[in-house]
Amino acid sequence: MAIDDRNEVARHIVAMRPAASSLQAGRRGFLAGGLAGAAAGALLHPKLALAKGGENLPPNVPEWTKTLGSGVTEKQYGSPSAFEKHVVRRNVEWLTATEQSSINFTPLPDLDGIITPSGVCFERHHAGVPEIDPAQHRLVVHGMVDRPLIFTMDDLVRFPSVSRILFLECPANGGMEWKGAQMDGCQFTHGMVHCCEWTGVKLSTLLQEAGVKAEAKWLLAEGADGAAMTRSIPLQKALDDCIVCYSQNGERIRPEQGYPVRLMVPGWEGNVNVKWLRRLKLGDRPWQHREETSKYTDLMPDGKARQFTFVMEANSVITAPCPEKPLKFGKGFYEIRGLAWSGRGRIKRVDVSMDGGNNWHVAQLQEPVLSKALARFRLPWTWDGAPTLLQSRAIDESGYVQPTIEQLRKARGVNSIYHKNAVQTWRINANGTVNNVQIL
Amino acid sequence: MSRSSDRLKRLAARSAVALACLVGLPLADGMAQSTPPKPAATSVHDGVGRPATPAEIKGWDIDVRGDDGLGLPPGKGTAKQGEEIYLAQCASCHGEFGEGNGRWPELMGGKGSLTSDDPRKTVGSYWPYAPTLFDYIRRAMPFTAPQSLSDDEVYAVTAFILNLNDLWPMDAELDAAKLRSIKLPNRDGFIGEDPRPDTPVGSEPCMRNCRASPPKVTSDLAQRLGVTPDRKPKD
Predict the structure, then answer these.
(1) Helix, strand or coil for residue A315?
(2) Positive or negative: CA dihedral B179, B183, B186, B190
(3) Which of A267-276, A387-396, B195-204, B210-219 has the lowest mean pLDDT?
(4) Which of B29, B190, B193 lies at the smallest CB-CB distance from A267?
(5) Tell me, what's the ipTM?
(6) Could you report how far apart the first and last alpha carbons of chain B are, in Å?
(7) Above 80 in pLDDT, residue A7?
(8) CATH superfamily of A108-306
(9) From the candidates A288, A306, A350, A396, which should be mutated to test the interface with B, based on the most B CB atoms within 10 A?
C-alpha cells in the first residue's frame, strides 16, 4: 500500500500546500451565510436569521405536507435522502499511485450508533473490485486435510450459519500520524474502520468437514481478485472464531467488501480478512508471502520489523466534535460522541478529557457493548467557549489502556506505519473550529 | 466427500466434533502453538460440498512458500531474458532500473535505510525471502494483467529484479533450486512473535490531576498542510 510510502508521507508532511481545507471552506460559507442573514433581518434573533427557505417553517405549512410523495415502485432499492450527499467515502489522492490499489475512508463523523451502512464502509483493494458471478465462484479447502473439498455458494449457504457484529480495521488506520498531526479530519485519521453484522458459516465447520491433519498449524487464505491476495492465519485462530461470510448487514456482501464470500477474522487486522475468498490451504507454518513480509510488518527503530502483529489493540476517537463537526453554535450544550473498539474483546470503559489529559471523565457506553465490535460512547458537555484539548481513552476487558502517542513512539519509534492506536487530541479553538493536533 | 450410511457412525463423528470445538477455544488471540482439535472422522454435513479433484486444485494451487520455496514449479530463466520482459511489461510503473516511476513502488535500493528517517523497503533492503518474489509476481503482476506470465517468464523477471539489487548475475539461469538457495540481505530482519502489548497496561489509569505540567501542542501542522481532502461529494 502506498500509505507505506514514507517518502510520500514525509514529502507531504513538509509540503505546505496553500489549498483551502474543507473546513476552511465550510467555515467561510457558514460565516458568509450568517452575515448575509443578519443584514437582511437586522431585528431577528441571530439564530432565526440563519434559517433559509423559511417558507417551509412554522407558522407556514411546508410544501411536502401539501403534496403527494413518490410511490412504492419508485425505488426498488432505497438510497439515502438527497440531503445526505455529503455522507460518502473519501479517498486521499496523493496517497497512492492508482485507484485500484488504494484505500478510502468511512465518514465516521456523519454516522451514529455502531453499525456502518454497507455503502460507506471503507474500501481497501490491491487490484480493484472484481465482479464475480456467484454461480461461477468456488471455495476450495485443501492442503493438510483428510478430504480436499470444493464448495459452491449454495453449499456455503446451506451449512449451519452464524451472525456476529464485528469491527474491521485496516492496520494502517492512523498510519499517516506517526510523525505528527497530518490529516485535519476524523474521516482520515480514523476512517479505515467499519462495523457490520456479518453472516456466514464458521470456518471451523468447513475445516471439520475437510478434516484437518494433526501436523497442520497454519492456514493460507487466498482471494479471487487480480491480486490473488494471500495471508497466513494461525490454525488456532481459524478454529476459534473466524467466519466465512456471505452476508453483511442482512444482505449479500457488497462487491467492494468481498462479494460473494469473504473471511472475517474477528479483532484482527483488516488485511487478513481476505475478500473474494477462493481458497483455504492448510500447512504447518506461515507462507511468508508478500503481504506478511514486505507489507503489514511493523518496522522498529533498530531496523528490525515485527511480523504477524495481528490483533488490533484498543482504539477510540471522538466523532463529534472533530474537524468536520465544529462547535458551530458557540458556547453552550453539546454531546460529546465517539467510538471505541478493541480486537481483544469488549470495551470496558471510555474516559474523556477536556484539558489535554489532566482530568478524565467516564463516558456513557451505549448498550449492547459487544466483543470486537465498535462501541458508542457519549458524554454531555457544556462548552464555555475557551480553547479546549479534547481526548478519549479506551480501556478494554483485558485491562489494556489506549496509549498516548508519546508512549507509542517510545515503544516503537515513528516508522512502523501500522497499528497506530494512540489517544487522539482535537483542539477546539475559541471560534468553535476543531483541528487535529498532537500534544506532549 | 465420503459419506457414511451408518447413522451411528455419523452421530459418533458429530460428538467428536463437538468435543473438539470445546477443547480448541482459547480466550486469548494467540498464535497457533497448541495442538489443533482432532479432525472429524467423516463428513458431518451430508451432501454439502464435494471432493475437490486434483485437476481443480492444480489450477488454483499457485502458492510458493517463502522460506523454503515449497510449491516452486519447474522452469527457468536468466536475468537477461527477464530484462526484456521487464522493460516491456513492468518498467512503465516500476522504472527502468526498478527505481519506481512517481508513486509506483520501487523494486531496488534502500539498503541501509531501515534505521533512517526515511526507510525504503524493497526486495533488496527489506524482503526476507527470495521465493516470495516468485510467488508475488506470478499471482499479482503485471498489475493490469495478473497471472498472464508463464513460469519461465516469472523465473526470468524474478532473476532480473534480483539482478537490479545486485543479488543475481545477468546471465546465470535461475530455477527453483537456485531461487531457494538465495539468501536475501534482510533475511534475519523480522521478529515473528508479537511482543504487544508493549505500552503500559493493566494499571488503573489516572483520573484526576494527571499531568505534571500543562499540555504542550507539539504538532499542529494538520490544518495548514492542506493535504486533507475536501468535504464536497463527487457528482
Answers:
(1) strand
(2) positive
(3) B195-204
(4) B29
(5) 0.88
(6) 52
(7) no
(8) Oxidoreductase, molybdopterin-binding domain (3.90.420.10)
(9) A288
Alpha helices in A320-420 (DSSP H): 405-412
Return residue ranges of chain A for CATH 3.90.420.10: 108-306
A101·B143 Cβ contact <8 A: yes
How far is Cα A276 from Cα A132, in angstroms, rounded to an integer? Answer: 8
CA distance linking residue B89 with residue B184, whole number of Å:
25
Q: Are A228 and B30 within 8 A, CB to CB?
A: no
CA neighbor of B124 nearest in space, from B98, B156, B153: B98
Cell of A30: 457558514
Chain B neighbors of A419, CB-CB under 8 A: 196
The segment(s) of chain A belonging to CATH 2.60.40.650 are: 315-437
For residue range A57-81, list pLDDT tens digits in order: 999 999 999 999 999 999 999 999 9
Among A418, A421, A424, residue whose Cα is nearest residue A172:
A418
Question: In this structure, what are the phi and psi dihedrals at residue B158, rounded to the nearest 5 degrees?
Answer: -60, -45
In angstroms, what separates the C-alpha of B80 from chain A's closest C-alpha? Answer: 24
Contact A94, A102 (CB under 8 A): no
Question: Is the Cβ pair B45, A209 closer than 8 Å?
Answer: yes
The residue ranking higher by pLDDT, A52 or A245, is A245
Q: Is A154 helix (H, G, I), strand (E, B) or coil?
A: helix
Distance CA A229, CA B46 (A): 31
User: Whose grid coordinates read 437586522?
Assistant: A42
The fold for domain A315-437 equals Immunoglobulin-like (2.60.40)
Model confidence band, residue B221 (pLDDT cutoffs 50, 70, 90) = confident
Which residue type occupies A212?
Answer: V
CB atoms within 10 A of CB B48: 22
CB pairs under 8 A between A and B: 368
Which superfamily does B77-181 belong to? Cytochrome c-like domain (1.10.760.10)
Residues 180-209 of B with CB under 8 A from A: 189-203, 205-209
Which helix (H) or strand (E) segment holds residue A299: the answer is strand A298-299
Of A15, A255, A269, A390, the residue nearest B196 (C-alpha): A269
Are the C-beta atoms of residues B73 and B175 closer than 8 Å to each other? no
Share of residues in chain A with pLDDT > 70 (%): 88
Q: How far is residue A248's CA from residue A265's CA, in Å, rounded to a whole number?
A: 14
B70: buried, middle or exposed (CB in 10 Å: 19+, 13-18, 0-12)? middle
User: Å from A256 to nearest chain B CA?
Assistant: 18
Of A197, A409, A433, the C-alpha closest to A328 is A433
Domain segments of chain B as ranges = 3-51, 77-181
Percent of chain A with pLDDT over 90: 85
| Residue A170 near residue A269 (C-beta atoms within 8 A) | yes
Vertex B43: Cα angle to B38 and B47 (nearest 5): 160
Does B220 contact A437 at a Cβ distance shorter than 8 Å?
A: yes
- In angstroms, how far is the first alpha carbon of chain A from the final one? 30
Q: At what angle do helices A203-210 and B7-23 cross, to 10 degrees?
A: 130
Residues 62-81 of B with CB under 8 A from A: 62-63, 65-67
Whole-model pTM: value is: 0.88
| Rounded-to-10 torsion of CA A171, A172, A173, A175 | 130
